[in-house]
C-alpha cells in the first residue's frame, strides 16, 4: 500500500513546517512514504519564530503571533513529541519561545528531516484530480510556480495568524488605537497608556500580565463565569463585555464606562485555508471546518488530513497522534469506514456538543475535557499507542492555571519519573 500502481513510493505533501508539519513529515517518512514539507518562511518553526516585522501593506502577511518575553503556558514536559522529549538540561518547565524553536530545530536534525523540507516554497493551490492531488508550489527564491503531484496531503498551515475580530457597535466612532494580539510584540508600546484588553483566553491573560507592567491602567473585558484572581494586578480592572465603543472609550454591559487610548483584541483566530480549491470539499463556517472525520480526515477527499485543528489540548501530542492515526489509513493498515458512516459519526458528535448547550460552531473543535476520550478513540480505532498516562495527568495538573494562578504557576517545575508518575517541585504528584 506504500507503493502506487506504478510501483512508486506513495507521495506525501505536507503544507507547513511548524510543530505539526514536522511531525507529519517525520512519521510519513518513517512509514515508507516519499514525503516533502513545503514551508513558505525562511526557517522551520512557525508560531515559535519571533519577528518584529509588521505588514507593509493591506496584502502583506505576518506569519507568527509570537511576542517578546513569552513563556510557554504548558510545561516543556508535555510539549515534546512522544518519541523526542525536551532536554532535561533546561531547568525551567515553562520556557521561552527561543527554547521551543531550538527544540523543533533539534527534532528536525535528529530525524534528518532537512533534505525533505523546502523552505521559501509556498503552496498556493491544491486541487484533487481523479487519482491524486495537484499542488502548485511557488518558489520564492526563483519566483517560479510549478505543479507537483501527490497521493496524500497533510494540511499543517497553522491557525494562529488570521485574527478573529468581533464586530463591536460603535467601532466606527472610536478614535483611539486598535490592535489584535496577532500583531502585539512588546509591552513598552503601551507605556503610560490606558488600555482595554478584550478577551481572557491564554493570550488575553498573558498579555494583560505583560502590558500592565508598562501601562497606566488596564481594563480587562471578559465573560468568564469565574473572574480571575487579580490580587497581583494592581492596575487592572476587570470589566464585563463591551456594549459599544465610544469616541474615546467604551460603555460596558453593566452600564459602566471607561476612557482609554488603546484597544487590544485578544479574541482568537480564524481557521483559513487559502490554498485549498473549492473542489477539495472543505468549508469553514463560523470556524467549524467541515466535513472532517475525527477532526482530521477530509470526508469528501479522504487522502487529505488536517493536523492540529482541535484546541484546548496538548498540542504536540495531539498532532503526533492525529498523524499516526491518519497514517494507519493512508498506509492501508486500517480501512476507512464508508463515507455515510463518517458523516453519521460527525453529525452524532456535533449533535452531542450542541446538546450540551455550551457549544456553538466556533467551538466545534474545542476539546478541553473531551480530549481524553478523543485520544482513547483514536488509539483504539487505529491500533496506535495512546498518550502516556503521565502526560495526561500532568496536563490535568496545569489546566486553567493561566487564569487562576497566572502570577505563580510558571515557577512550578515538573519532572517525569516514569510513564505514570511525575514530580512537582521535587515531590511526587498525583
Ligand atoms: P504553526 O506553528 O503556525 O506552523 C504553520 C507553518 O505553516 C508556518 O511555518 C507557516 O509559515 C506555514 N505555512 C502556512 N501556509 C503555508 C503555505 N500555503 N505554504 C507553505 N507553508 C505554509 N502551544 C503549546 O503547546 N504551548 C504553549 O505555551 C503555546 N503558546 C502559544 C502562544 C502563542 C502566542 C500562540 C499563537 C500559540 C501558542 N501555542 C502554544 C500553540 C502553538 O501554536 C502550537 O502548539 C503549535 O506551535 C502550532 O503548530 P502548527 O504547526 O500547527 O502551526
TrEMBL record:
Cofactor(s) this protein requires: FAD
Protein name, per record: Flavin-containing monooxygenase
EC number: 1.-.-.-
GO terms of molecular function: flavin adenine dinucleotide binding; N,N-dimethylaniline monooxygenase activity; NADP binding
Signal peptide extent: none
Keywords, ordered alphabetically: FAD, Flavoprotein, Monooxygenase, NADP, Oxidoreductase
Enzyme class, spelled out: oxidoreductase
Top-level taxonomic group: Eukaryota
Family classification: Belongs to the FMO family.
Amino acid at each position: 500500500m506504500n507503493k502506487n500502481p506504478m510501483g512508486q513510493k506513495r507521495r506525501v505533501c505536507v503544507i507547513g513546517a511548524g510543530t505539526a508539519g514536522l511531525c507529519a513529515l517525520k512519521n510519513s517518512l518513517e512509514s515508507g512514504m516519499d514525503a516533502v514539507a513545503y514551508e513558505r518562511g525562511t526557517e522551520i518553526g512557525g508560531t515559535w519564530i519571533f519577528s518584529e516585522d509588521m505588514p507593509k501593506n493591506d496584502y502583506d502577511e505576518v506569519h507568527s503571533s509570537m511576542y517578546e518575553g513569552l513563556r510557554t503556558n504548558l510545561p516543556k514536559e508535555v510539549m515534546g513529541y512522544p518519541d523526542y522529549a525536551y532536554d532535561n538540561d533546561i531547568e525551567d518547565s515553562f520556557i521561552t519561545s527561543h527554547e521551543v524553536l531550538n527544540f523543533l530545530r533539534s527534532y528536525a536534525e535528529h530525524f534528518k528531516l532537512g533534505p525533505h523540507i523546502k523552505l521559501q516554497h509556498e503552496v498556493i493551490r491544491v486541487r484533487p484530480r481523479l487519482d491524486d492531488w495537484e499542488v502548485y508550489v511557488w518558489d520564492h527564491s526563483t519566483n517560479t510556480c510549478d505543479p507537483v503531484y501527490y497521493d496524500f496531503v497533510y494540511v499543517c498551515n497553522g491557525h494562529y495568524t488570521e485574527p478573529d475580530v468581533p464586530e463591536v457597535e460603535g467601532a466606527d466612532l472610536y478614535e483611539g488605537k486598535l490592535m489584535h494580539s496577532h500583531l502585539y510584540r512588546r509591552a513598552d508600546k503601551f507605556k503610560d497608556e490606558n488600555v482595554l484588553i478584550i478577551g481572557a483566553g491564554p493570550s488575553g491573560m498573558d498579555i494583560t500580565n505583560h502590558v500592565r507592567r508598562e501601562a497606566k491602567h488596564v481594563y480587562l473585558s471578559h465573560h468568564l463565569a469565574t473572574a480571575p484572581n487579580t490580587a497581583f494586578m494592581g492596575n487592572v480592572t476587570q470589566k464585563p463585555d463591551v456594549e459599544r465603543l465610544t469616541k474615546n472609550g467604551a460603555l460596558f454591559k453593566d452600564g459602566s464606562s471607561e476612557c482609554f487610548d488603546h484597544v487590544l483584541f485578544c479574541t482568537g483566530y480564524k481557521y483559513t485555508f487559502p490554498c485549498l480549491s473549492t473542489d477539495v470539499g472543505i468549508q469553514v463556517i463560523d470556524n467549524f471546518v467541515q466535513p472532517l472525520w475525527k477532526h482530521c480526515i477530509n470526508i469528501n477527499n479522504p487522502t487529505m488530513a488536517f493536523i492540529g485543528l482541535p484546541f484546548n489540548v496538548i498540542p504536540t501530542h495531539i498532532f503526533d497522534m492525529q498523524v499516526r492515526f491518519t497514517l494507519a489509513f493512508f498506509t492501508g493498515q486500517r480501512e476507512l469506514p464508508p463515507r455515510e458512516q463518517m458523516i453519521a459519526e460527525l453529525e452524532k458528535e456535533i449533535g452531542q456538543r450542541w446538546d450540551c448547550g455550551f457549544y456553538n460552531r466556533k467551538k466545534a473543535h474545542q476539546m478541553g475535557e473531551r480530549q481524553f476520550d478523543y485520544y482513547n478513540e483514536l488509539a483504539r480505532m487505529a491500533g496506535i499507542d495512546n498518550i502516556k498516562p503521565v502526560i495526561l495527568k500532568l496536563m490535568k495538573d496545569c489546566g486553567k492555571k493561566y487564569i487562576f494562578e497566572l502570577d505563580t504557576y510558571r515557577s512550578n517545575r515538573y519532572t517525569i519519573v516514569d510513564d505514570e508518575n511525575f514530580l512537582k517541585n521535587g515531590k511526587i504528584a498525583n
